[in-house]
Amino acid sequence: MTPIRLISGFLTVGLWTLFSRIFGFVRDVAIAAYLGAGPVAEAFLIAFSLPNMFRRFFAEGAFNMAFVPIFAKKLERGEDALDFARNAAAALGIFLFGFSVLAHLAMPWLVMAMAYGFRGDERFDLAVTYGRIAFPYILLISLTALLSGVLNSIGRFAVAAAAPTLLNVVFIGALVLADWRGWPVGDALAWAVPLAGAAQLAVLWWAAARAGFVIAPQWPRFSPEMKRLMLVMGPAMMAGGVVQINLVVGRQVASFFEGAVAWLSYADRLYQLPLGVVGIAIGVVLLPDLSRRLGNGDTEGGRWSFSRALEFSLALTLPSAVALMVIAGPIVSVLFQRGQFGAADTAATAVALAVYGAGLPAFVLQKVLQPLYFARHDTRRPFRYAVVAMVVNAVLAVGLAPVIGYIAAALATTVAAWVMVWQLWRGARRLGAAADPDERFRRRLWRQVAAAAVMGAALWVAAYMLAPWLAQSGIRYAALAVLVVGGSVVYFTAGGLLGAFAISDFRSALRRNRAG
């Protein structure tokens, strides 16, 4: 993959993810307005988190991290990649169908595992009902993730990156329809989950078929490639399970504080915007590219890809992290405070957002560092590192909850993320020259930090001056837009003057993206 094409891939995935997250904001704003941080909102958020948790565990986590390198190498060598993809899809589909049936029967226990604090109040029964409706989403979205891996491996990023927008469109449509017809909003949202999964699967199947990869139903065969896939998946599944345990610990802690599940969820959605735009884009594009380069023995090319991924991701993540910490209050107030979502909800959510913001660079760096291991089929060390991070997360979340309340869950997540990055970076020294950032990255890193600090100071002053307008209904959206646009201008101006990045790199990639 050429330099411009690599960065163009990052931007393609990032821009479509941004588009999806904008719709996600509209969705979350509507949910907050209709449900606030009340029992129906908390019950739905826990129910929706169940299939999403297992999706990240099975599909976007262990399965795709094992599937994509093998599939990409088969493509590179001219082997029968389509047969491998069909066989993998069949095995994944049959396994998840059976898993969904078991989850339907065990839903009360799953809800208690996620939110024991719900036991004995109305949130529990609602979460069980919504969970049973929503859980089939895991089968649909996991097959969608496999098809995304196929398309990303052949360099077709746009459709796979655009498909998640359908989820938010369906959710928004369900909210509008429920309001129009007078249906219970929670019920409408629960039924929208599997419907959105079916829509995403249909679009990705069509795109893969057009690219020559028709994934037809079949009975799985235990081929040598499938055996290898499962051997690689084993440690990756355990590592993914550790990550999900961290999420479960956070939700368990939050479930004992009324409203906290919703506060943390809304804060999570806000920091997921830059994480999705940058981190997921880097991971989606970098893993296939690294797999091809390292598979061909192109160590220097792998080093270049890794260094540019680091440079590009931090150039966009550092200012995002600073902004989430400095203007967390105005962001939450303008985006969410209306209807059932009051000033107390805004204050609680803003604190969580600032804490998550401090961990944003770590969340993104994990997505850049992990492909170094997965491209070499090394999933054992990331698992060991994840176990250490899990212990840190659990000790901090549970130990600090009696002292600082629900925010212990957010603080534990952030600290554990940095512990994970430290371990991945330290372990990458053993992976050879491809894992050693080049001089250009080292030269630009401190300049990016300085530019982000300049922007943070400017945002702090601007937020103080715009405070009356940020609190005034009708013009607060414009005031927030001034903050965001002004901060961006300050950052890119400072970055350009300091040599933190070359604006021409972004322009060239955008031109290539439009042309492609």
Question: What's the helix-strand series?
Answer: HHHHHHHHHHHHHHHHHHH
Q: What's the assembly state of these chains? A: single chain
Helix content: over 70%
Largest sheet: none
Alpha-beta content class: mainly alpha
How many separate domains? Answer: 1
What does this structure look like?
The chain is an all-alpha fold. The protein has one domain. The protein is 84% helix and 0% strand. It has 19 helices and no strands. Helix 3 packs antiparallel against helix 6. The longest helix is centred in the N-terminal third of the chain and has 39 residues. It is globular. The protein starts with a helix and ends with a helix. 56% of the residues are buried. The C terminus is likely disordered.
Main features:
disordered C terminus; 19 helices; 516 residues; mainly alpha
